[in-house]
Specification:
Oligomer: single chain
Number of strands: 16
CATH topology: Purple Acid Phosphatase, chain A, domain 2
Structural class: alpha/beta
Low-confidence stretches: 1-32
Mean pLDDT: 90
Largest sheet: 6 strands, mixed
CATH superfamily: Metallo-dependent phosphatases
Distance between the termini: 19 Å
Length: about 300
């Protein structure tokens, strides 16, 4: 259900400078006339430190921090401008979490050089206090714009957005999370206040686009890819905003072969991506920008298998 590591697919015109062939965009590099930004991402890793056991199950031999770290290192050797992001549910799923309470997961993410993550509902499984306690081991920010952590242990320990600059391209990354009521025990999230993620996303994207002049805007979302019932999801978020270039999703453990291009309120495309669960895949989206205007020209995408199927 995944693509081979180097099976990159050119997708959707993002600017007038792209060269197309049969509807597929072909990468065109002309000296210093373009700049590439590589976005790597995971979601719903759920404390999967070791690979799945080789027991004949569908995921046998897949995943594992060691293989993920080696793959990330390999990509960083070949790409100069890389961001590594996570869409939440770092915790819960193996005895590592039950024994160490998330310490190992956060330490491993820090060692792999994650640039930012958001919180998922399972990151509250040891309470707000349990998550906040582990952030002493984090050298990356936790991003969330729609949880108000006032009067909780997380107060002052997260931020709504983070700015990164890579090769002259200004990148704004922010996070949004799912409604906690009915999903998480009230004692675990305490005084945390949920705010409408679509409303907060509109506020943040406007600020990032027009006040901070970001060239690329990324949302780390733990809302879920799509629902049959009327519920806020990544698809709804994409349709209800104007300036988000990429939504990196989580929660529904959705395996996408390639990002879903969704028409936003401005009539442009917002990409929505998610790569399953348990760290068995690494998502990758490469954006290419014109070096003079900093406008997006095109993108390519891939799913990078981790573990037994990887080709490091």
């Amino acid at each position: 259900m995944v693509l081979n590591r180097r099976n990159f697919l050119g997708k959707a015109i993002l600017g007038s400078s792209a060269l197309t062939l049969g509807g597929i965009l072909q990468p065109v590099y002309a000296g210093n006339e373009s700049r590439k930004i590589t976005i790597l991402h995971t979601n719903d890793v759920h404390s999967r430190i070791d690979p799945f056991p080789n027991d004949g199950s569908p995921n046998a031999g897949k995943g594992g921090v060691a293989a993920r770290a080696a793959l990330i290192k390999s990509i960083r050797r070949s790409e100069a401008n890389v961001l590594l992001l996570d869409a939440g549910d770092i915790f819960q799923g193996t005895p590592y979490f039950n024994y160490w309470g998330g310490e190992l997961e956060i330490k491993m993410m820090s060692m792999m050089g994650y640039d930012a993550s958001t919180m998922g509902n399972h990151d509250f499984d040891n309470g707000v206090e349990g998550f906040a306690k582990q952030l002493v081991h984090a050298n990356f920010p936790i991003l969330n714009a729609n949880y108000n952590f006032t009067d909780t242990a997380m107060e002052g320990k997260s931020k709504p957005y983070q700015i990164f600059t890579k090769n002259g391209i200004k990148i704004g990354v922010f996070g949004v999370g799912i409604e906690l009521t009915g999903l998480v025990n009230a004692k675990q999230y305490g005084a945390t206040q949920y705010q409408n993620p679509v409303q907060k996303a509109n506020e943040i994207e406007q600020f990032l686009k027009y006040e901070l002049k970001c060239d690329l805007i990324i949302c780390l979302s733990h809302l879920g890819y799509q629902y049959k019932e009327k519920k806020v999801s990544d698809i709804v978020l994409a349709q209800s905003t104007k300036h988000i270039d990429l939504i990196i999703g989580g929660h529904t453990h959705t395996f996408l072969y390639q990002p879903s291009p969704i028409k936003n309120l401005a009539g442009k495309l917002t990409l929505v991506n998610q790569v399953g669960f348990a760290g068995i895949n690494l998502g990758r989206v490469d954006f290419v920008f014109d070096s003079i205007t900093n406008k997006k020209i095109f993108y390519t995408s891939a799913i990078e298998p981790i573990g037994e199927n990887s080709k490091i």
